Amino acid sequence: MSRIAFLTMDSLDGFISYDALVADCLAARGIAVENVSWRSSTANWDDYDVVIIRSPWDYQHSVNEFIAVLEDIDASDAVLWNPIDVVRWNVRKTYLQELHDHGITIVPTRFVESPVASQIREMFDVFESDEIVIKPVVGANANDTFWLRPDSLTDLLQQIEALYQGRLALLQPFIQSVVEYGETSHIFFDGQHSHSVLKTPKAGDFRVQEEHGSRIQLLQPDAAIIECAKRALQAVPQHTLYGRVDLVELSNGQQAVMELELIEPSLYLTYDADSAERFADAIQRFRA
Questions:
Q1: CA-based torsion, 209, 259, 80, 275: positive or negative
Q2: pLDDT tens, 165-181?
Q3: Which helix (H) or strand (E) holds 177?
Q4: CA-to-CA distance for 230 and 191, rounded, in angstroms?
Q5: Which pTM was predicted?
Q6: From CA 123, how far away is CA 160, in angstroms rounded?
Q7: Is 168 exposed, middle or buried (0-12, 13-18, 19+ CB in 10 A)?
């Protein structure tokens, strides 16, 4: 019997994971799946045919240690998906600049090292926007993310200064359509579109993650939107087992990439009845 490890974290309390749906599909095909924390001190990666990064949703706090674990897996007898070079490329949101250089429309973005209050305030003019967002280049689940207006209190800006001291920050205009309509996520397995969802934040919030109370619903996007998402995925340096492309609509009506999630994306498998089977199909193809 083949053995697969789903790489996760010590505890998923407070998070929503769909991995069990895929594990059940694989078990029905005679393929055993074991959840293994990336922080495990006892895991022997040679025991597995494949290790699939699924829900290590605390890695952003210890990125170097996480990459070191992936290097150990990559050096073992197990096959790592997604590949470690894809992880290295995707772990820093500077990949957005590379997408832009490939002709992919992204949300307008600036990167600033150790931003100070005056630099943050300048971004309102740079983006010609009354609202901006600042977030870490390495991060997840909207941690250390701020939604700012020109009248944001000085003490908040000082807090951000301290938080980002010695860190590279990503600044973008706030995209109004996110609160008016939502953000769309397009999930791909083996480069093929599986399903899409619309994520709408709760009233008064801008965060679209389920853990922050957003509303999720299945979406049937038109072919042009799927093609937009596929073009972004095709710009990735290597082929991927799974990927999620998050799109938003700019004020000019154009679709733009907000994020390209290739490490540990939520795949929203409960929203499409056949999606877990499609993921299991892709895993079976990739485990050789």
A1: positive
A2: 999 999 999 998 988 88
A3: helix 177-180
A4: 8
A5: 0.91
A6: 14
A7: middle
